[in-house]
Amino acid sequence: YAGDTVSISVRPATGYYLKDITVVADDYDWDWDDDWELDDSWFFEPSHWFDGSTSSDDDWDGWEVSVNRWKEFTMPRSDVTVYVTFAIDTCGAGWTDCPSYRYTDVGSYAWYHEAVDYAIDSGYMEGVSKTRFAPNDAVTRAMTWMVLGRVSGRWNLEGGSPWYADAQTWAKNNGISDGKNPTAVVTREELATMLYRWYGSPRVYGDLDDYLDRGDVSSWAEKAMIWAIDSGLMDGMGGRTLSPQSPTTRAQLAVILMRLNNL
Known about the structure:
Blueprint: E1 5-7, E2 16-25, E3 42-45, E4 48-51, E5 63-65, E6 72-74, E7 80-88, H1 113-122, H2 141-151, H3 165-173, H4 188-198, H5 222-230, H6 250-260
Antiparallel strand pairs: 1-6, 2-5, 2-7, 3-4
């Protein structure tokens, strides 16, 4: 029914991966003789609701319906067609055109493999050497400033003295960080806070009551952690555990960057 949340389950064949899902609303002929009234009704336009007093074309062919990162969409008031695109998995069996192929410590089927490919291909992250990505190494605060700068299109933050000086200044000037302790490990709650500030500190609803270690979250990081969990940027560690004081690994940062791209 219109307004329902529809979930799409996709299982690629061996040697392929899911490249894209596109949902398109089919033609819908509005019958203005029905009970719909423009002055007091709400109508559904694929991707968002709009006030019925707003004019709109009657031809709905070609309207794409928004599909989120969980492969869900909201059913419009028409039939839809789901288009699924697959591509050959160039990262399986050691194929050399995989972005992370050269890193011997990134397995083909590691849970973070796709995210590392994204981070490398986008230029947001790079290996610690020509052959190592070090997915389990901790991320420092300075590295976080540099990466967020790159995500913001600031590719000129390297080359200072020390190497993180320009990224440090950029993070301070934009209210993302206080710029202190650049070589210290960034914790999960610190990363959530930097991301939250970088995203503009949006209004937050909800709480962390479902997590057993919610009391370990610092008061200054609570809103940021709620936002990071609710937006899907971060997951609990081991079910109902947040581990806010735990170090952020490079693999975790890569996954968060990929999710950030879909926010």
